[in-house]
Amino acid sequence: MQEQIKNILKGIIHPETRENIVESGVVESVSQQGENVVVVLCFAKAKDPFAQRIKSMVEQVIVAEWPEFEGKVTVAVKQKEPKAQQPKRESTTTSVGKIIAVASGKGGVGKSTVTANLALTLRNMGYRVGVLDADIYGPSQPKMFNCEGYLPDAVQEDGLDYIIPAKSLDIELMSIGFFIKPTDALMWRGVMATSALKQLLHQTKWGGLDFLLIDLPPGTGDIHLTLLSEIKLDGAVIVSTPQQVAVADVVRGVEMFRHEQVAVKVLGVVENMAWFTPKELPQNKYYIFGRGGAESYAKEVGVPFLGEIPIIQGIMEGSDEGTPAVATDAMVEQHYRTVAERMIAEL
Ligand code: ADP
Fold first, then answer.
1. Whole-prediction pTM
2. Is the domain of 178 the same as that of 235?
3. 226 CA to middle of ligand 1, Å?
4. Best probe residue, ligand 1, of 102, 104, 111, 113 (max atoms within 8 Å of C-beta)
């Protein structure tokens, strides 16, 4: 049984060393415990950026290639070097001009869509922009920027490992989605997701950015805590739809950033899906989710109002096709430019 599993694992190649994980010694042991199997992986480097991805590949490949195997596969990860031997690492975000988190109370309000289009608007204004997609529950930036399936390369400089972001439409993109499959989502929650985020935050080799936008998961959770404790944010943008704006989740989001121990400036609220205009009646605006909610909410809690984005079919289609609408539609860009200009004024 052990040999059969080792043979299967020979099919997994470490993206950096380009060697299979059995012959290169990453697979330290495969042992049988009754019906079940325990695989111990041992990585030569502390914090190997590919460790978690290889761990999840091991789990999946055994199930996929040996359907008759009915036991459980447990994979443990170890590292050879003690941490102290690693040179001290400075986060790669220290070279970024402004780091802005994009957050929302609930999912589905268009936070990721706003992040992608805001990134492109800033690019159109002449800034160098990166997006870090930290939405572990639904990393959608790779699809929106047509980079699904991108396998980040790792490089070494002065004994430190860096991960290379994808590039699309002039935007540098790193996503937690590059390291997981949609079906992995559950196992990436909690500790694994936060340690992966730390690596992406500190090891991504950005190319001299003016702005880094971080697409956060909805709500307030471990990922938010990790982000707030690992790096200094320059501000946060809250995205809401008109009917979601006054609900407790949004209020909690604002308070999370404004908390005295965190003290991140809330740059403002963006009201997404503010109204609908049918193509055949361009003068008509239908406020199907109510009107002016976000603006009055912003006043009430004392945060700026950054602007409104209407419901436009092209916004949805652009994201689905891998080219966010701002790249192709000047009308959409106009709405986003107002948001971007007000946001910059707040920084
Ligand atoms: P979140 O990141 O908040 O979960 P998404 O950005 O994934 O939300 O958006 C949810 C859905 O709504 C997507 O299908 C997206 O294309 C669509 N969408 C978002 N904003 C708009 C808009 N202004 N007009 C039309 N569709 C939109």
1. 0.77
2. yes
3. 25
4. 113
> What number does the ligand 1 atom closest to the CA of 273 have?
23
| Residue ranges lining ligand 1, Cβ < 6 Å | 104, 107-113, 140, 272-273, 309, 311-312, 315-316, 319
What is the pLDDT, as a whole number, of residue 190? 62
Residue 151 has what DSSP assignment? -
Torsion of CA 253, 255, 259, 263, to 10 degrees: 70
Q: Quickly tell me which residue has 């740059």 as its tokens.
A: 267
Specify whether 148 is located in the same domain as 232. yes
pLDDT score of 297 = 86
Confidence of residue 183 (pLDDT cuts 50, 70, 90): low
Task: Give the residue from 45, 79, 113 where a domain finishes.
Answer: 79
205 in the same domain as 106: yes
CATH number (domain holding residue 185): 3.40.50.300
In a domain, 84, yes or no: no
Of 143 and 81, more confident: 143
Q: What is the mean pLDDT of residues 124-153?
A: 94
Report if residue 121 sits inside a domain.
yes
Give the atom of ligand 1 at the shortest distance from the alpha carbon of 116.
Answer: 6
Cα Rg of the chain, angstroms: 22
Which residues pair with residue 73 across a beta bridge?
A: 37
116 alpha carbon to ligand 1 midpoint, in Å?
Answer: 11
Q: Parallel, antiparallel, or unpaired: how do β-strands 171-175 and 166-168 relate?
A: antiparallel
- Domain, as residue range, for 68: 2-79
